[in-house]
Amino acid sequence: MKKIVALIIFVLSLAIYLFFCQKTYQNLNYFVPLANAFVHGRIDVEKVSYLNELVEHAGKWYVVYPPAPAVVLLPAVMIWGLGFNQVWASVLLAAGAVALFYLLAREVAKKETVALAITALFGFGTNFFFTALVGSSWYFAHICAVFFMVLGLLLAVRKHPLLAGISFAMMFLSRLPTFLALPVFLYFIIFKNPKDKIKATFKFLLPIVAAIAVFAFYNWARFNTLTQTGYSLIPGVLQEPWFQKGIFSFSYIPRQLQAIFWSFPQISAHFPFFMPYRYAMALWLTTPALLLLIFVKLKNRIVFWFLLSALLVAIPSLVHGTVGFTQFGYRFSLDFIVLLLVPLIFVFEKMSWRIWTIFVALSIAINLWVAILFALGIFSY
Predict the structure, then answer these.
(1) Which of 31, 139, 246, 378 has a beta carbon 3.0–4.6 Å from 69's, enabling a disulfide?
(2) Alpha carbon distance 55, 229 (integer Å)
């Protein structure tokens, strides 16, 4: 029965995402040419003017972003080549993530209604909704990371440590900060395998260590160093005003906290009335249901490990120079949104359904409104 419900959720989510998504070809598609390069046995790409964040080294041009999203695109690019629209992969993967999230929620929730509600909140009440519709490489990397985080957690809960490790590797090679979600994964690997903790942990860590080695070699092949990912080599990036103290600095924390908690939309008496601020918008405004986290009980071990991991994953974003603009909401939150939503399951189960229904409905209404504005061409990324 769970699989049937998950399939229905996948189909409905895909239909909704396809209805609202950008229909034109997404040319900010760094991962399509990178996947095409992989298909032809290369790691460098052709220089084109509209991909302005390529980095040149030794006469060749490279994509600086971690390569897992390009690996995801390999089958599509092998069939359709450079003409493949990255948007289609984004909405397909996003719909898959929503279905998998339902299965994960069913592993944790005691009530079916709560699992369905938290799934609806994830898929349509957070900025995951808007992010799935765009398909640009920065957004697509988030969609990939979320997909593999949900898949990895589900596999860990269901006692498949090797597959969970592979998913974890694909997750952090989509968005590097998500590597810091390791504690909650290890909690499930160890807790769910009480009779063979060492073997399960070894199976889980093996593909992760292998992925780190491959990524280090990938960096060496591009830039002759194991640790240089290339982001700081983007032409002019260190001269941009938001990186005055480097890519990362503790001095950027107030800027990030303001984006997360104190950034507001533009309100007017005329249509569209509510216009998102493309710089950032506070998390509690884009997803009011997150306010209910104040009722979580940290003595619950699952809640503790999820929230600890969410805090750890947030750290690289908190010290990063930019807040992720342009965007709806605060897109860096997608690195840890799953880790915040699962603890809400326990809140919902202890709270009157009338209360959390209001918060879930409001969250979905806000994000649906932005999706409508996007589909109408009124709000763009």
Answers:
(1) 31
(2) 10
